Structures are given as C-alpha cells and as structure tokens.
C-alpha cells in the first residue's frame, strides 16, 4: 500500500522504488538518532568512512549504512530532522511514512559476513574493510587531504570532520600484507557475491607519489584475489599523466577522477584545492589520458548534482561521453562538518530531470555504463542504466 503519490512515474514497480530513493536523497529522512540501537538482528551500520552524512549521530547509534527500498535498489540514510519523510520501527521492521502517512516497509542491509574478525595487525575487519553500498568491499586508503589544512577543501566534503568524529575508529594504516589478508578474508567468506572491489583514496600531498602508493595497494589486492574480479579506483590523477598506466598495470580495471562540476567558475569556487593544486584543464587532460589507458568508457568522471545548473551538468556529460569517458553522478547532500553543511539538497524535480537526461544519454552512448553493477547509496546511475527512469 502506498499512500504517497509516487506517480506520475513511468517505470512500474522498479521505478516506484527508484522514485522513493529520489525523495529520500532530496529530503533526507527524519528519525530519532538512537532508533536502531534496540534492533537485535545484526545489520550493516554506517562506517562513516569519508563523510558525516547524517546529522548528530555517532557510530554507536548504529544508523544503517543504507536501506533497501525494493527491486534491488538501496538508498543512503541521510538523517535530516525536518524531513517530511520519516522512519519508524514496528518490531524489527522499518516503515517509511510521508507526512505521517504509511508509504512502505524498507529493509536493513545485512552485516557483511567478514566483519567481526581481527586482522593480523590487530585491526578489526569492520574498521579496515570499507564496504561501499551494501555489497562492494574495498579500502579507503590514505584517509586525509591536505586541502583542509591549506584552507581549500571541496565545499561539500566532510572527510576531515567525519574522521575526527563518527568515523574515527576507521583504519589509517594499510600495510600491504594486511590488505592482502583482508582481501582473502572478504573473498573467501561465504556471504554475498562480490561484483567489484572499490578503492578510494584521500588526496596526497604529492599526486605522483599518491598514484604509485595506490598502485602498490591495487597490486596487493590483485595478487591476493582468486579468482580475479574487477577493481575500481577513485583518486586524484598524477601530475605525470604517464603514471596512470601504473594503476592499470597493477590490476585496476576502471578509474574515476572526479571533476565534481563542469562549469569552470563553479569548479574554482567549490573545489578550490583541486583548482589550486591541480587545475581544471589538467583534470580534463587526465580524464582523456585515462580513457586511452583503460579503454573506452572505463574511465569515469564524477559529478555532484545540485551544485550547478542542469545545462552545465549536461554540457559536462556531453564532453565526457564524446571523449569516451563514462559519467557518474552523486546527489548532493549537506554533510555535517562541510562548508556546505547548510546548503539545501537539490529538489526532486531537478534530480528527476537529470535522471531522464542521463537515461537518454545511456541510450545514445550505448557503451557508457555505471561504475558499479549494483545499486549504490547516493547515486542513481545503476537505476538509470537499468531503465528505471524511462
Ligand atoms: S579532494 Fe575534495 S572531495 Fe577529495 S578529500 Fe579533498 S576535499 Fe574531499
């Protein structure tokens, strides 16, 4: 039973789930911070690896990493006290309401089967392995960014705040043998199929050294994998673009360098560190180079929806796709501790327009794809690629 009018919508039942995800991302969800502490059944609670996405919560509150909204789709849980979208517990069931009216039951994500172990260096597996979305394990290595002490962080980023608060128990040290051990642990644990491994990094003071370090991490993972599965890397590009090949040789199968916004002036304003220490034009050059190294549409450029007008996003998408670079989207969320902590999220109309446009672009550029072959928390790429917004 759905009281909230999730129509008009063309995507049938899958589309209705995706539509609920759009609402949850645009408005956030309101619920008591300690609501999930009473649930006995284990579930995957948020690790706060690189962002303080929910307001006024700490890890002991056990806010879920994501919610399953139906038909394979998950959504981020962005706690926003004023949202008309509310969460309620009925026994162990989580119910979504809109302005007090029942919408649907949603499900908690399963706790990864490889959590609860202690690695050989004494670190807990749930602090060492960062699981993106619900089922994609990996590592967030070098969880720092010198743009913060230099006073030039990206304005939407809460990495520094998250690592001092809710995410403070997450790993800082990644010895290669422990990375290999953790890789074997998550691949050999009988739990869920692992479609891809996700490696993300903070921003190194020296971009070239950062890429060489990340290549060593990828090599350790790749060597430990049996059988081999895809490895995706999100990082800053090197100054010496020839070094991008090192990541490929190490075993990386796809790569993302995130421009975040396409409009040049907006980039300079919102990503002052990326502009000052790397530069807009060099980011474009790096993306073109990555596409040549990794092959058509295996290099990705990330955009944050809600920081520039739709026509700028579309111009960025066209530039990327014409250069055989895939795009990835992220719906802006105002993280606690970021410069944009009080900036409004984009409207549902804005996001639905971009879903429709990206849907048309996937048809036009049929080799373009989403990074992950599963639903992820704050992006609609997978749902759009599946056709939920047609
Ligand atoms: S480059 Fe920007 S998004 Fe990445 S960690 Fe630094 S401030 Fe955050």
In short:
This protein is an alpha/beta fold. Helix content is 33%, strand content 16%. It has two domains: 12-106, no CATH class; 125-386, Aldolase class I (TIM Barrel, Alpha-Beta Barrel), CATH 3.20.20.
What tags apply to this protein structure?
6-stranded parallel beta sheet; 33% helix; 390 residues; TIM Barrel
Note down, in words, how this protein is organized.
The chain has 12 helices and 11 strands. Helix 4 packs across helix 5 (207-224) and helix 10 (310-322) packs parallel to helix 11. With 390 residues, it is an alpha/beta fold. Strand 4 and strand 5 (101-106) form a beta hairpin. The protein folds into 2 domains: 12-106, no CATH class; 125-386, Aldolase class I (TIM Barrel), CATH 3.20.20. It has a 6-stranded parallel β-sheet with strand order 6-7-8-9-10-11. Bound molecules: iron/sulfur cluster (SF4). Iron/sulfur cluster is lined by residues 145, 147, 153-154, 157, 159, 202-203, 273-274.
- Overall radius of gyration: 20 Å
Tally of strands: 11
Order of helices and strands: HEEEEEHEHHEHEHEHHHEHEHH
Quaternary state reads single chain
CATH class of the largest domain: Alpha Beta
Ligand types: iron/sulfur cluster
Q: Looking at CATH, which topology of the largest domain would you report?
A: TIM Barrel
Average pLDDT reading: 93
Largest sheet: 6 strands, parallel
User: Which strand order spans the largest sheet, edge to edge or round the barrel?
Assistant: 6-7-8-9-10-11
The CATH architecture classification of the largest domain is Alpha-Beta Barrel
Our count of helices gives 12
Q: What would you call the structural class?
A: alpha/beta
The proportion of residues in beta strands is 15-25%
Structural domain count: 2
Question: What is the CATH superfamily of the largest domain?
Answer: Aldolase class I
């Amino acid at each position: 039973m759905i009281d909230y009018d999730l129509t008009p919508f063309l995507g049938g039942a899958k589309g209705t789930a995706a539509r609920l995800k759009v609402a949850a991302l645009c408005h956030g969800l309101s619920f008591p911070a300690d609501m999930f502490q009473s649930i006995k059944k284990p579930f995957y609670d948020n690790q706060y690896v690189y962002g303080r996405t929910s307001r006024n919560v700490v890890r002991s509150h056990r806010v879920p990493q994501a919610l399953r909204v139906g038909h394979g789709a998950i959504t981020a849980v962005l706690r926003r006290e004023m949202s008309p979208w509310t969460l309620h517990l009925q026994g162990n069931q989580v119910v979504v309401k809109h302005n007090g009216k029942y919408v649907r039951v949603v499900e908690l994500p399963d706790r990864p089967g490889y959590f609860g172990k202690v690695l050989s260096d004494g670190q807990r597996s749930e602090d060492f392995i960062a699981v993106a979305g619900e089922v994609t394990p990996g590592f967030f290595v070098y969880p720092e960014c010198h743009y913060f002490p230099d006073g030039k962080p990206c304005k939407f980023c809460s990495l520094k705040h998250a690592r001092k608060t809710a995410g403070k128990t997450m790993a800082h040290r990644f010895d290669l043998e422990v990375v290999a051990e953790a890789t074997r642990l998550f691949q050999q644990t009988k739990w869920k199929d692992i479609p891809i491994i996700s490696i993300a990094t903070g921003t190194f003071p020296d971009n070239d050294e950062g890429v060489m370090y990340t290549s060593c991490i990828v090599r350790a993972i790749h060597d430990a994998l049996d059988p081999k599965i895809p490895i995706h890397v999100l990082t800053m590009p090197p100054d010496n673009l020839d070094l991008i090949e090192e990541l490929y040789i190490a075993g990386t199968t796809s790569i993302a360098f995130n421009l975040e916004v396409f409009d040049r002036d907006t980039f300079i304003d919102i990503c002052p560190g990326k502009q000052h220490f790397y530069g807009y034009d060099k980011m474009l050059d790096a993306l073109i180079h990555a596409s040549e190294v990794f092959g058509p549409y295996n290099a990705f450029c990330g955009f944050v929806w809600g920081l520039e007008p739709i026509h700028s996003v579309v111009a960025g998408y066209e530039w990327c796709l014409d250069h055989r670079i895939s795009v990835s989207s992220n719906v802006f969320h105002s993280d606690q501790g970021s410069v944009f902590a009080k900036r409004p999220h984009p409207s549902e109309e804005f996001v639905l327009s971009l879903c429709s446009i990206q849907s048309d672009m996937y048809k036009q550029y049929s080799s373009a794809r989403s990074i992950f072959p599963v639903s992820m928390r704050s992006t609609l790429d997978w749902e759009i690629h599946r056709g939920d917004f047609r």
